[in-house]
Amino acid sequence: QVRLVESGGGLVQAGGSLRLSCAASGTIFSINAMGWYRQAPGKQRELVAAITSGGNTNYADSVKGRFTISRGNAKNTVYLQMNSLKPEDTAVYYCNADRVKGWRGVNDYWGQGTQVTVSS
């Protein structure tokens, strides 16, 4: 069974920084991409940033220049460094692993979510 475990959320003042971490565990042969999504109250879940196995990255326009996604030295880990945080960044952040190849074939997986709250 593949699991994604997130950490690093919390409360921060506007202009501050947070770093989110996500580790995928289980029998994993390959992962196409890992990324972070967020969902604010009353809004749809949206892509924040993603990184492919080849290192290509993609960011939402709203976070470009402020957030950086990276892969860890440990296999199947991903980080999201969030700088210059704004109140509108407040949301539950979810880690996603896209097209994970394991014993059960190819599936997508989600973490449980971590709350990020930015106060003004």
Task: Describe what you observe in this structure.
The chain has 120 residues and is mainly β. 0% of the residues lie in helices and 62% in strands. The protein has strands at 3-7, 10-13, 18-25, 28-39, 46-52, 57-59, 67-71, 77-82, 91-102, 105-110, 114-119. The strands form two sheets. Strands 2, 4, 5, 6, 9, 10 and 11 form a seven-stranded mixed beta sheet that branches. Strands 1-3-8-7 form a four-stranded antiparallel beta sheet, with no helix packed on it. Strand 9 and strand 10 (105-110) form a beta hairpin. The model has no long low-confidence stretch (mean pLDDT 95).
Brief summary:
The chain has 120 residues and is an all-beta fold. Helices cover 0% and strands 62% of the residues.
Helix-strand string: EEEEEEEEEEE
Q: In terms of structural class, how would the helical and strand content be classed?
A: mainly beta
Unreliable stretches:
none
Largest sheet: 7 strands, mixed
